[in-house]
Amino acid sequence: MSFSPTVVKSTQQGTIALNYGSTTATATITAVDTNKTQLTMLGLSTQHAVANIYQPGEVESRITLTNSTTVTATKNKFQSGVNSTIVTVAYRVVEFY
Question: Which domain holds residue 71?
Answer without folding.
Answer: 10-93
